[in-house]
Amino acid sequence: MAELQQIQSDAIIDLSRESFDGLGCSDYGIVVLQGADSWGAHESGNIVLPTSEGPFTVPISYDEREAPFATGMDGSKHPELLLSLTDEGDYIACAWARVLPGSPLMGVGIDLNAFSHFRPRKSGRDVAKLLFTEHELELIPHVADDPLYAKAALFAAKEAAFKSCAWPLRAWYESHDDKLLFEVRHFCMTEPGVERGVARNGAAQAAMDRMGIQRIEVHSTQLLDMALVVALVLRQERSALAS
What we know:
It contains seven helices and twelve strands. By secondary structure, it is of the alpha+beta class. The chain has a single domain (5-234), classed as CATH 3.90.470.20. The strands form four sheets. It has a four-stranded antiparallel beta sheet, with helices on one face. The protein starts with a strand and ends with a helix.
């Protein structure tokens, strides 16, 4: 088993509160660990979540699309416990929330993306031009002063948004015969601030409409030389919750 060190910082705490406060969750959090290159190398598939009632160990299973979900020790599902996993280099991270009845939160996604992916290449090739639309490239200077962080956060936002759909998609498949197919490329940034949300187009937009998803909200922070991004699938706009 890999020897892991938990990374604790104000940035992680602030991102967690900013993301989940006010969404009807009894518990939530973000855990970042250093010392393993994947969750498969950690705890034999178990995750220890630092809940308000103390450490809570949950086994992790994977569906046919390789999306993770929490189970009980007896293999039963935890429908109220949403989580997402990511890895980058020798860092692994988990975002999770235990939702209460009536919560608008339908799914959670997390992604870590290192700045190094976007450093200039000796060949002169700009990786960003291969990953972003022309409009997204125009947004980069408005996302953050540091272009490496801005690019890493933009791409992580698309990845996290895709992951956040895993739980509502799994629930859809359990009660419907037809398949909803979409990819990361069907998510796009339309507003300068990453935290403003991710839009959908094409196949993803059609799938979101059928699953009853109103908004995918995205929050980000810098952690060391990486962008840490959390995406939330909501049944309704957060602004509507207070009305």
